[in-house]
Amino acid sequence: MNARHVLTVLALTSGVATAQHNGADGKAPLLEKLGNRHHKVTTANDDAQRYFDQGLTLCWAFNHPEAIRSFQRAAKLDPDCAMAYWGLAFAYGPNINLPMGEDVNDKAFAAARKALELADKCTPKEQAYIQAMAKRYAKDAPKDRAPLDKAFADGMREVHKAHPDDLDGAVLFAESLMDTMPWNYWLEDGKPKPETVEVIDALEGVLKADPLHPGANHYYIHAVEASPAPERGLAAAHRLGDLVPGSGHLVHMPSHIYLRVGQYHEASRCNERAIMADEEYIRKYKVNTVYTAMYYVHNVQFLTYSTAMQGRRDDSVRAGRKTADVVTPEALKMMAEAQWAKATPYLALARFGMWEDVLREPAPADEFLFLRVAYHYARGLAHARRKEVMEAEGELAFLDKIVANEAGMKKLETPSFPGPAVVQVYRALLAAEVAGVAGKPDELRKGLEAAIALQDKLPYMEPPYFYMPLRQRLGAVLVEQGKWKEAEAVYRADLKKNPENGWSLFGLLQCLRAGGRFAEAADVERRF
């Protein structure tokens, strides 16, 4: 999820966020379908060991609220188990999708200190884990956590060097290093950062020794998905989907790779299964935490996009409406990212040209600026497609008024959601479409090219921040204008970014047939 996942929340300190710290009495269940991973810790209590193992698996699965409950239970069962407190300190900390809220600093610091107090009861390797964790926190929450996060990563690097056969230690080192640069592992020229090389080397070493390690497969997908060669993650994707069937997030994670390589059916299948897993977990355990507010919603939103890429209109629209339904009121008020998810129905309808349905959609509340942008954009597009020029211009004027609200736009900018930049793509695209319906084909083309340039500048995210690949629209306009060679070039460019995109394959097929290149057309048709 991520990075900047779709769903990263900055320093949540109330509402949904506090739910992850409920259950302080330690009464956590032993969950089903989480596999049988085992990390031996110093304890004479078998149940404490089981809860520690569960907690670590849940950390691999990014269900940190439930991991906290598991580690709390382990500590209650064996108050002298230092690693139970280490686990608590680990789970309270930041990860690539969530920075650390100030409200948990005291708990994390106390857990790390408690582990230190009990460290003399542990093995040397456990003591190394605990010493590294002690570097992660300060008594008073700092304004800038970067030095502490780096200190923890440096500490885990030393653990990894001292204990190279400890696979969990290698995965923890890789994750700690990723946490210092969340969702930012690759340079603009496509080369990995030096730290990314360390991450990949550590994870590949683990996967060579134990291909079924859930944490290593999970983080490896995140490490390579935004690279120029996301297919490197295919083996991990194939393995991970069935490793921990009780974790919706791990069941979902292969879709990050499948989407990048054009395996849209597999991406949809992953998310359908992930949604079922999460709904079973929520229903059985009555859960309402950051995990459910973020990762469950992410799975449904992802399904909207992947089914759209398949051309599954009804399924995509259904998933889009479900996405909006599962966004909680608390999240909507606190997170700009939640508005992005809540807007999904407008965009799903627009993606498939369901213009009458778009125009029947109710207007969102004025306070939700991103929702209003998506609403007026979709309506403007609907009027443009219906050749209702005045109405389309009116919706563009509404959108321009929202964009001019500088204070409001700033609120849409978070570390995980470039709201103002996404809004600019909507604005540029609608302006182009309005020009087109007003009989200005040159402005339509130039406007689409401008919108594409803005889309290309958006940070990497899965699903993408903008709801559709815009080159397919430019290609269609060029086809309508009879500019076959230019359209072909645009479609091929899109297929490099979005392999096996059915819209662009169909457009390319038209171009090849128009040029009399029937053998090439037959090859493309087989892929379509």
Task: Characterize this entry briefly.
With 528 residues, the chain is mainly alpha-helical.
What's the SSE blueprint?
Blueprint: H1 46-60, H2 64-77, H3 82-92, H4 105-117, H5 124-134, H6 146-162, H7 167-178, H8 194-209, H9 214-224, H10 234-240, H11 248-252, H12 254-260, H13 264-285, H14 290-310, H15 313-326, H16 329-334, H17 336-342, H18 344-351, H19 355-360, H20 369-385, H21 389-403, H22 406-411, E1 413-414, E2 417-418, H23 419-437, H24 441-457, H25 471-480, H26 484-497, H27 502-514, H28 518-527
Helix pairs in contact: 1-2, 1-3, 2-3, 3-4, 3-5, 4-5, 5-6, 6-7, 7-8, 7-9, 8-9, 9-10, 10-12, 12-13, 13-14, 14-15, 15-18, 18-20, 20-21, 20-23, 21-23, 23-24, 24-25, 25-26, 25-27, 26-27, 27-28
Q: State the shape.
A: elongated
Structural class: mainly alpha
Distance linking N and C termini? 29 Å
**Count of DSSP H/I helices:** 28
Helix-strand sequence? HHHHHHHHHHHHHHHHHHHHHHEEHHHHHH
Helical residue percent?
55-70%
CATH topology of the domain at 331-468: Serine Threonine Protein Phosphatase 5, Tetratricopeptide repeat
User: Could you tell me the mean pLDDT?
Assistant: 94
Range of strand content: under 5%
Using the CA coordinates, give the radius of gyration: 24 Å
Please identify the top-level CATH class of the domain at 331-468: Mainly Alpha
CATH architecture of the domain at 331-468: Alpha Horseshoe
- Which sequence of strands runs across the widest sheet? 1-2
